[in-house]
Amino acid sequence: MPDAETTEKLTKLYQSIDLSQADRETKRRLLQLGMLKVTQKDAIQATHQMTPDSIGMLMASLIERVTKPGGFGVFLVPKALFQSKETAGLVEWIQSVAYMQGLINLPEELFANPTGAKSLLLLQRQGGTSHQAGKVLLGSFPSVKNRPEFIAFIREIDNWVAQYLAPAK
Fold first, then answer.
1. Contact yes or no for 99/132 (Cβ under 8 A)
2. pTM of the full predicted structure?
3. How far apart are alpha carbons 112 and 8 in whole angstroms?
4. How far apart are CA 80 and CA 143, in angstroms?
5. Per-residue confidence (pLDDT) for residue 70, from 0 to 100
6. Of 3, 22, 48, 158, which has fewest CB within 10 angstroms of its CB?
7. Looking at residue 69, what is its pLDDT?
8. In this structure, what are the phi and psi dihedrals at residue 132, rounded to the nearest 5 degrees?
């Protein structure tokens, strides 16, 4: 986990970004460039790298469906993130600042090695009108090659957002 100073710097940077007027292609490119940077910085072997374009498209699609002003973060994390010794500390930190609204595994075909598999972690900052969803979004994206299943899964996400993230009345 980042130290307090790094967290503060990142928070200021994230708050200064306004993607509300950005089109889908711009969002996809930003995510793709971010993925490339992480891949280079983490020195991931070529055989373990996923296709940045594919992951960027998936993330952009999900972000468009769940991003609301002032509170959501979608993070690309190792699929086994919550299976380590540090899990308790991570969960405690998440619960102190955010609501864990979802964890979705990305299609396995995007990864040459199962140990390199990634998931999308959906967090919502506490405060304002935010609330813990009645049901956490958990699942796995089907193969992008199976278009009907993929579209059905996106519809399930849309339905979950409407049912569990709609502002309380």
1. yes
2. 0.60
3. 35
4. 19
5. 47
6. 3
7. 47
8. -70, 130
8 A C-beta contact, residue 65 and residue 157? yes
Q: Using CB atoms within 10 A of its CB, is residue 3 exposed (0-12), middle (13-18) or buried (19+)?
A: exposed
Q: How wide is the angle at C-alpha 42 spanned by C-alphas 37 and 46, nearest 5°?
A: 85
Listed in sequence order, the DSSP H helices in the chain are 4-16, 24-41, 52-66, 87-97, 147-164
Please choose, from the candidates 137, 168, 161, 133, the residue with its C-alpha nearest in 3D space to the C-alpha of residue 67. Answer: 161
CA–CA separation, 120 and 50 (whole Å): 14
Tell me the average pLDDT of the chain: 76
**Cα 49 to chain centroid, rounded:** 18
